Amino acid sequence: MKLSPVLAALLLCAAAPGAFAQDTSIKPEKLTIRPHISDGPHLFVLDFGMNGSSPIYVYDTKDFKLEGSIGTGSFGQMLMSPDKKTLYTASDYLSRYTYGTVEAVIHEWDAYTLEKKREFTISPKMAQTISQTSVLNLTSDGDFLLVQNATPATSINVVDLKAGKDLVEIPTPGCWGDYPTLKGNAFTTICGDGKIVKYSFTADGKVADPAKSAQIFDPDKDPIFTHGARAGKDMIYVSYSGHLYAVDGAGDAPVVTKDFAFGEAGWAPSGNALLAYDPAAKLLFVQMHSNPSDGSHKNPAEEIWAVNLETEKVVGRSKANGETGIFLSGGDTPELFGIDYMGGAHRYEIANDGTGKLTLKNSSEHVAIFPTIAATDF
């Protein structure tokens, strides 16, 4: 009689149970979690997460080794505190992705252990927008978070960090962004009529009348990017054609302190977080692309230019690696980091000879699926 393969296997198992007995001499492995990331410098990369949550990945900057991650909700925004100890995030938690309730949540994370320190809900009017540096900022004293709202009517939600709740909603019709002033409870915002407007508020939620600048740019002929860079007392903005505006918001109303064109024929700025300022060298780094056309302001960078704000001249041009955002570290010798549209990250050394020439030190592919903004802890 011929046995089927299945029956033969069953008989073999019954005849030799010892062959499958558990070896009790093998001790189960105990899984552990590192209590904190390493002491070296790190790059925090926010992955916007087009189809769900917006995770944050933390990499060692020397070899881009992944050291940890932080989970947030959808449409995530990220901000590193000035002392590099706390990472703030703002994101939405959706009960049903295409309908249902929305819960907007502020998280405070320990930037060393990556553990949650605190969380609380804020107004669900928070803008569901691509991650950008203009929509989540701290006031100069660190007491308030400024959060961009859009329903689509625009307003700024002032969040009291000590109380862990909303303080006041400030309507900002036709305007976008919330760049805080260097002193006091105030911020400036870019408006669709070409003006920059300053809003001030008190600690108990009283709001002053808006103070408007004169028209600074023509929104129809040459609009500016909403991403700006702080350079001392001024906020720096660039237009689609390559015109630079330095705007001082310290007075009653914002005023232009510098206004010059740095671009040249066949080249124009582009990207999401396209500016980074080195205060020691007084150089503004700008992402640039060639053959500009209508809509090409979102193109990845082909070069990164260094603009001297004192001489108002381009002093250096370096090859880029398809960056959509650039970010400067702190320290005595700052480094420039770039994230590209394919999910890669790049670290550049900055020449200290006044040219702002960039030397690529290392790169890594696929640090995120859709990286939008980044920050360093040094």
UniProtKB/TrEMBL annotation:
Family: Belongs to the aromatic amine dehydrogenase heavy chain family.
Any single GO CC term annotated in Swiss-Prot or TrEMBL for this entry: periplasmic space
Major location (coarse): periplasm
GO molecular function terms attached to this record: aliphatic amine dehydrogenase activity
Entry keyword set: Disulfide bond, Electron transport, Oxidoreductase, Periplasm, Signal, Transport
The keyword Transmembrane helix appears for this protein: no
Gene3D superfamilies: YVTN repeat-like/Quinoprotein amine dehydrogenase
SS bonds (residue pairs): 175-191
Location(s), subcellular: Periplasm
UniProt signal peptide: 1-21
Keyword match Electron transport: yes
Protein known as: Amine dehydrogenase
